[in-house]
Inverse folding.
């Protein structure tokens, strides 16, 4: 009987010993165990040009190990970006940008988005879409007094390309940063490009070693030759535009007030400057009044079809209507038949 009870108790005793050992390891030891944890909140902080950038987001991914040093365990994570996991939060995906996406957003030193640190604004401007107006305005609200607004080396403005990649990711995904873009109806914009650049033989020879004589020739060249002035205005991954403020030439005044109010820069000083001759002179330095010349160049649907195809992304992302221009007897533009 004594031997019977001893044999029966051996497995239970071994099990209890194992449990105690595991408990001691977890509570007091330095041990490593694999684990799968999802929906983790990530907090990332950086310091850029005098401003702290703090971003929180979350992920569902595999933690490679959990290291226990006391009864309350400390989680360590091995990821490509070496970010620290702080606590369980929500179910958004880890924000990241591929090299191609970063290149698309940063662009070149000459046409990168403008960053206004004081107001936490990233502004995606586009050539031939009121860019002189916006550059001069963004200079003014920062107290910058530089005449050559288009030269990044001397205009005093900050550009996204000058920031570190990890800070660009943080800023783009941080909701406390306002992201805004200003765009123009592609038919008006490409016509403005033609009037300003296409008819400028010096510009054409320097950039393309050839000149054009007609709008038709210019459109053919624009389809084959890259230039930022007639590149698509979609200059970030499309999903960013869902949460981006979008302004258009048709509502420039109301969008200006709405944007500056949101970032805290709208005041009487700005309003008075916008009404001044100085503002008008700066903002219309390259104006071609293309909107007044649409009838001359778009009196049929042929060119419009070409542009609908060339700028398909612009029409989709910015919700421009694909309808042919219809001009009444006075030459006033309206939208008519839908493009198919």
């Amino acid at each position: 009987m004594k031997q019977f009870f001893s044999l029966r108790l051996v497995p239970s005793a071994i099990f209890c010993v194992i449990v105690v050992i595991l408990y001691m390891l977890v509570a007091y030891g330095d041990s490593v165990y694999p684990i799968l944890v999802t929906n983790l909140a990530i907090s990332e902080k950086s310091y850029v040009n005098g401003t702290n950038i703090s971003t929180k987001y979350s992920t569902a991914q595999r933690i490679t190990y959990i290291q226990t040093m006391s009864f309350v365990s400390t989680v360590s994570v091995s990821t490509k970006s070496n970010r620290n996991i702080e606590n369980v939060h929500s179910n958004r995906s880890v924000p990241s940008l591929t090299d191609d996406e970063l290149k698309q957003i940063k662009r070149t030193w000459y046409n990168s988005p403008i960053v206004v640190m004081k107001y936490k604004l990233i502004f995606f401007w586009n050539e031939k879409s009121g860019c002189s107006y916006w550059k001069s305005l963004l200079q003014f609200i920062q107290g910058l007094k530089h005449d050559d607004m288009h030269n990044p080396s001397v205009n005093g403005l900050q550009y996204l390309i000058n920031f570190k990649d990890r800070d660009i990711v943080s800023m783009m995904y941080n909701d406390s940063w306002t992201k805004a873009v200003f765009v123009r109806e592609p038919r008006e914009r490409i016509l403005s490009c033609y009037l300003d650049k296409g008819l400028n033989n010096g510009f054409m020879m320097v950039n393309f070693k050839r000149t054009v004589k007609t709008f038709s020739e210019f459109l053919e060249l624009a389809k084959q030759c890259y230039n930022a002035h007639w590149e698509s205005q979609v200059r970030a991954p499309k999903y960013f535009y869902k949460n981006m403020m979008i302004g258009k030439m048709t509502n420039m005044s109301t969008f200006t007030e709405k944007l500056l109010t949101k970032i805290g820069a709208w005041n009487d000083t700005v309003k008075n400057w916008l009404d001044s001759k100085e503002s008008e002179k700066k903002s219309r330095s390259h104006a071609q009044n293309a909107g007044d010349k649409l009838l001359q160049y778009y009196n049929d649907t042929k060119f419009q079809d070409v542009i609908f195809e060339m700028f398909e992304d612009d029409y989709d992302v910015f919700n421009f209507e694909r309808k042919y221009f219809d001009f009444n007897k006075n030459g006033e533009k309206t939208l008519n038949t839908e493009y198919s």
